[in-house]
Amino acid sequence: MAGITDRPFRDLVARFGAGLVVSEMVASAEMVMAKPSVRARAELGYDASRTAVQIAGREAHWMAEAARIAEGQGAAIIDINMGCPAKKVTNGYSGSALMRDPDHALRLIEAVVGAVTVPVTLKTRLGWDDAMLNAPQIAARAESAGVQMITIHGRTRCQFYKGQADWAAIRAVCDAVNIPVIANGDIVDAPTARRALVQSGAQGVMVGRGAQGRPWVLAQIAAALYGTPAPVIPKGAALCDLIGGHYTAILGFYGRDLGLRVARKHLGWYMDAALTPADLRQAILTAQSPEAVLAHLPDALAHAPERAAA
What is the pTM assigned to this prediction? Predict the structure, then answer.
């Protein structure tokens, strides 16, 4: 979720009561070389005890050093990305491309586990393609190397985000390890979360795109499945205040000019859910000043439907 799960969004999701939030994927070598934009992706925010920093790369040295830096900054968990399907990542032999070379992937995992004292987790897909569904084998080797939890997206790399996530295929990973397995892919509410858990046998779920414009949905799912306190879903003036606060936090984090651009996708998702009229949507997404955006928000959200429990 590069460009989405930044600190302002993680802070908001965590405040609603998510069990764990994960940073944007951080390029390990660039993080070590202290590139400001990369360090910002890993910056911890609200309730850092429930924040994992996700790192990616293809060289053991840089992966280990990035993990040490993240731990030093307060990361409670280091997550290794072996699931990103983007061509610019896999062409650099990172992300899900590592599933094509399990021996090399394990060297990276061992380097990270050996570099830190905090738990190390792993995120993968089912495999590279339908002919290479090797997530169970990689998971078993990762467990032996010291990984303490594994999240599986129920698609292969070559599927990208097409078709339907195959939650049942995750069961083979659950059968291969003794550590917790988390199911991911197409989980957007409590009913889909329940089906994913039943079909996969996993111990938990991860929500990605389903949280766009709905930072409370993880807490909703947890309340429905596990009986945790149900979040208060904002509506009316409270919804306007929440979105305005998120918008202001984005500007504060990125600065005015970049923040105006970054915020547009979040505002778009909020307005999708609010059924904002097209003219108001256009006015907000093309506004050149924060003042104009904030002035239009009450009208843009006035038609937001009541939100049913997940």
Answer: 0.91
Cα torsion 92, 93, 96, 99 to 10°: value is: 170
CA-CA distance, 239 to 307, in Å (whole number)? 11
Task: Tell me how far apart the alpha carbons of residues 65 and 282 are, in angstroms, rounded to a whole number.
Answer: 44
Contact between residue 154 and residue 184 where contact means Cβ atoms under 8 Å apart: yes
Lookup: tokens for 84:
């990103």
Phi, psi dihedrals of residue 51, rounded to the nearest 5° = -120, 130
Active-site positions read 84
Q: For residue 57, which of 31, 35, 37 has the smallest C-alpha distance? A: 31
DSSP secondary structure code for residue 131 in this structure: T
DSSP label at residue 54: E
CA–CA separation, 168 vs 271, rounded Å? 34
Residues 6+ apart with CB under 8 A from 238: none
**Are 88 and 134 a contacting pair, CB within 8 Å?**
no
Report the residue count for the chain: 310
Which tokens belong to 276? 């904002």
Q: Quick: pLDDT tens for 81-110.
A: 999 999 989 888 899 999 999 999 999 999
